[in-house]
Write a structure and sequence with these properties.
Layout lengths: L1 H26 L10 H10 L7 H23 L6 H14 L8 H25 L4 H23 L19 H20 L11 H9 L11 H27 L3 H20 L10
């Protein structure tokens, strides 16, 4: 009888152990039961809102790119792709002097103004569609800008469009409209980015308003760490100036615009990678 009782007791313990194990599986204790699929994690990673902290460093890089591109494009084609104030003056001068020659150089400035405006509308709507501030929005925007710059570098490198520095201000070659158009289009993505980061003091493609706001700032003499907007304006100016100097020297040394285009596209690519790794915005708990 004792042996029979022990056997029954052992069977009960095994049954209880098996039942509790089954309960744990249904409760989801095993990690595999609730493991999020890779594609879902990938999607969620790029859907998050990004922190704006240190976003000004991205815009400093954009200011550097503006200096690089505008200096070398002006040297080769006699127009800007970012600074539309200068292009407006060139367009106005063309209207008053075009009858004196057949250069049609003003058409380049008109193309840049038009394509920059179209680009601003496109990138603004593109960002609103994907969601302003999201990781995927910043990454895709900068990758598109990078592709356009590199595509124009390849076009010039392949001799489909002349990119010699010595061709500036000569009679217009209508093929030159292609790099001017696409480079102006992509440049608008930078100022849209500055708006999405809520850093209008760093537009990256213009300096007139930056210099005005810098000089008129009532706190201009505050300590180095007490006026962030003033610091951003100053460093933005310096980065654009350094880019212009570097672009001028590279163009002079190489005699062509494609080398600066490859470099500018490379910087844009690095900025896109930075957005991939950028920290997400911290969620604020309701009080």
């Amino acid at each position: 009888m004792d042996d029979t009782g022990d056997k029954n007791q052992l069977d009960l313990e095994r049954s209880s152990s098996s039942g509790s194990g089954s309960d744990r599986e249904h409760a989801g204790v095993p990690a595999q039961a609730h493991k999020v699929p890779l594609l879902v994690r990938f999607r969620d990673y790029f859907e998050v809102q990004l922190s704006h902290n240190y976003g000004d460093f991205i815009l400093f890089g954009c200011s550097l790119i503006t200096g690089l591109l505008d200096s070398v494009i002006f040297s080769a084609y006699g127009t800007f792709v970012s600074m539309q104030t200068g292009n407006t003056i060139f367009l106005g001068l063309g209207a008053s002097t075009s009858h004196e020659n057949d250069s049609y150089g003003w058409a380049k400035s008109g193309t840049s103004i038009l394509c920059f405006t179209i680009g601003a509308g496109f990138f603004a709507r593109f960002c609103r569609y994907l969601g302003p501030g999201k990781r995927k929005t910043f990454v895709l925007s900068f990758l598109l800008q990078c592709v356009l710059v590199w595509a124009m570098a390849g076009v010039v490198q392949g001799k489909a469009v002349v990119g010699d520095i010595s061709t500036a201000m000569q009679v217009i070659n209508w093929r030159e409209e292609l790099p001017i158009a696409l480079l102006s289009f992509q440049a608008a993505g930078q100022i849209v980015c500055s708006r999405n980061l809520a850093m209008s003091e760093l537009p990256t493609v213009v300096l007139t308003s930056v210099m005005c706001d810098f000089a008129s700032d009532p706190k201009i003499l505050d300590g180095p760490t007490k006026n962030l907007k003033r610091n951003r304006r100053l460093f933005g100016f310096v980065c654009l100036l350094v880019g212009a100097i570097a672009g001028g020297w590279i163009g002079k040394a190489t005699g062509g615009v494609q080398y600066v285009l490859w470099l500018a596209g490379g910087i844009k690519f690095l900025l896109a990678l930075a957005w991939v790794l950028w920290p997400k915005k911290e969620e604020t708990l309701p009080s």
